[in-house]
Amino acid sequence: MKRKDLLGLHGVSREEITEILDAALTMRQVLRSGNKKTAHLQGKSIVTLFYENSTRTRMSFELASKYMSAAAANIAASASSVSKGETLIDTGVTLDQMGTDVIIIRHPMSGAPALLARHVRASVINAGDGMNEHPTQALLDMLTMREHLGALTGIKVAICGDVMHSRVARSNIYGLTAMGASVVLCAPPTLIPVHIERLGCTVAPTIEDACEGADVVMGLRIQRERQQKGLFPSVAEYCDNWEITPQRVALAKKDALVMHPGPMNRGVEIASSVADSAQSVIAQQVESGVAVRMALLYMLTRKEVQA
Amino acid sequence: MNLLIRGGRVIDPCSGVDAVLDVLVQDGKVARIGERLDAEGVTVLHAAGKVVAPGFIDMHCHLRDPGQEYKEDLISGTRAAARGGFTAVCCMPNTHPVNDNAAVTRYIIEKAQTQGSGVHVYPVGAVSKGREGREMAEIGRMKQAGIVAVSDDGRPVTHANLLRLAMQYADHFGVFIMSHSEDVDLVGDGVMHEGFISTQLGLPGITRAAEEVMIARDILVAEAEGKRIHLCHVSTRGGVQLVREAKARGVRVTAETAPHYIAATDEWVLGYDSNCRVNPPLREEADRQACIAGLMDGTLDAIATDHAPHHQDEKRVEFHLAKSGISGFETAFCVSHTALVRAGHMTLGGLIEKMSTAPARLLGVPGGTLSVGAPADIVVLDPDREVTVDASRFISRGHNTPFDGKTYFGAVCATIVGGRIIDQA
Ligand SMILES: [Zn+2]
């Protein structure tokens, strides 16, 4: 891997994504073996710098680091410290001085990882920035899809939910289209960002259209605040029109996968009966997450050794 | 003090002069313009190969004094203006305290006169006390102290009735309103123009409607009252069209745009460069073209910098947290000249009209012409010289510019106010 950082999947090539997914496959063997310990990151120090709560993603990165024998530390900065505390650049410079090899950042504002990466020597992995990107989530989604569907080329992925505010949606659009998959979005018009189709996806008029013949139906979290902000009138009306229900999933291919990056709002964007169905691979996504993050950490730090 | 500007191409849109001539300045005024004037006993400024024009007049800038001198003050600001070829500037009232009373107005004028570079400073007073949009400020007293217009710039006059009343009231004192036309509700939490680029960057967007809704309202209120309104920093295609239509039906509306709206687009935000954060935001190519077309057909009367200096700490942060604004004095001419004149949209005389003659006329201030008897507020330009912007060498305390490192055509060689050379490159 030639890059210093992974800030997003925008502009990342099919070859590079394949390389990461292949490496993740190897890492998953490690995870599935009895002894989850490798020396890949011995002598490396990895910091998770989270300005937003996300136990799931942070734990996933932390375990990935520890399984590979890195020294892992966690900085939990509150969202309010973004504007009131030390500046992001100063924090980054401090971490650099402490000899950090990789900084994993989660931040409520789009572009924050890019700002950090410009000012630090350490590699930066974007663990989610604002509404921009969440590349490791899309990579783990693709790893999961590849395992079940064989290849990503030519598959149809329906993404339903709050596309507007979703960094997961953007990273999946970039990643999946690079891999030759087609991505169809579906959401209330108030939750579809302008000109999103210019990213290479399409917007379906109804969720039925989106699900029709899909290989994957992916839900995105609908936060209750969106309703209070006037983006849709009620959860009930949302469900009438956009919830992923068994009837809608039935329109997809016979063994279509049901996915969700979590945390789910059951009974809002996805029905419990769908989330818990045999087609659901939501739990496996979590395992893929650790494998993908192990692979990335290894590839980014190995690059440094070669340099 | 007497000065002879020798052998330059004199361009004065006001009197229609465009010829290689000498300009003789006596007692701070333009005394004679002609060929081979006698240089006996006067200082000579050689201008062969250069352009001699009336000094630029900036209708819209932020000098940050009083209160935010760490960003800029009346000394650094007027020196930066002189470097940019400006001989007069209008500073907006969003200072601390707000210029909403005669005492602040007098402070600004006096400090500029005693400590400034020589550039004339014409304060713009607030429409409302504290720029809070509730009670009208003492427009009459501020006018007496020296304001040339009123504005709550940085914010719109949200309540239409206050705008209406202020139009009526200000008109009595010969003062007009400069409107920062922005519907705050439509802006929401937006930080850049809403379009494909905001979608790609995952940044909350600002719809064009946020600007256009208020431009339409401002025009309609002015039309109903038969009063005058000036629209600041027009940036959208729809905004230009609204002004065009209003002018066609006789509404007393005038408008400005800024160099960045005719030279940059939202694509510049790719990479999250916080120096591209400005309000109104950088728009799309179609809007840029519309602003240029608006300048060409007279819909947009003037180019104003909206010079908005900030400390580097206020820009070296996440895009969301960065302050809006561009330090514009020192790039206004080269950027506008390259985007308009070199690109073939207008003549150099046309640009001088937009940066000098028209602002003088709109504001009712001296300058904007080199006719005999006019104040010797003059700029000497080298339009064909290539300049690479180096923000670290700005005289302004604000080094915030999206133009840093870029190359343009057009240098300011000398700035003369009242016959005195106040800046010479
Ligand atoms: Zn403004």
Number of self-contained structural domains of chain B: 2
| Total beta strand runs of chain A | 9
Structural shape of chain B: globular
Helix content of chain B: 25-40%
Q: Which spans of chain B have pLDDT < 50 for at least 5 consecutive residues?
A: none
Note the main attributes of this structure.
A: 307 residues, alpha/beta, Rossmann fold, five-stranded parallel β-sheet, four-stranded parallel β-sheet, 14% strand, globular, B: 425 residues, Urease, subunit C, domain 1, TIM Barrel, 2 domains, eight-stranded mixed β-sheet, 12 helices, binds zinc ion
Short description:
The complex is a heterodimer of chains A (307) and B (425). Chain A is α/β, with parallel strands linked by helices and 307 residues long.
Reconstruct the topology from this structure:
The complex is a heterodimer of chains A (307) and B (425).
Chain A: H1 14-32, E1 45-50, H2 55-67, E2 71-76, H3 81-84, H4 88-97, E3 102-107, H5 112-119, E4 123-129, H6 135-149, E5 156-160, H7 167-178, E6 182-186, E7 202-203, H8 207-211, E8 216-219, H9 224-228, H10 235-242, H11 246-249, E9 257-259, H12 272-275, H13 282-306
Parallel strand pairs in A: 1-2, 1-3, 3-4, 5-6, 5-8, 6-7, 8-9
Helix pairs in contact in A: 1-6, 1-13, 2-13, 4-5, 6-7, 6-13
Chain B: E1 3-12, E2 17-26, E3 29-34, E4 43-46, E5 51-54, E6 56-61, H1 74-83, E7 86-91, H2 102-115, E8 120-125, H3 139-145, E9 149-150, H4 160-172, E10 176-179, H5 184-187, E11 192-193, H6 196-201, E12 205-206, H7 209-225, E13 229-231, H8 237-248, E14 253-257, H9 259-263, H10 285-296, E15 302-303, H11 332-342, H12 348-363, E16 378-388, E17 407-417, E18 420-424
Parallel strand pairs in B: 1-4, 1-5, 6-7, 7-8, 8-9, 9-10, 10-13, 11-12, 13-14, 14-15
Antiparallel strand pairs in B: 1-2, 2-3, 5-16, 16-17, 17-18
The structure holds zinc ion.
The site of zinc ion has 5 residues of chain B, from loops.
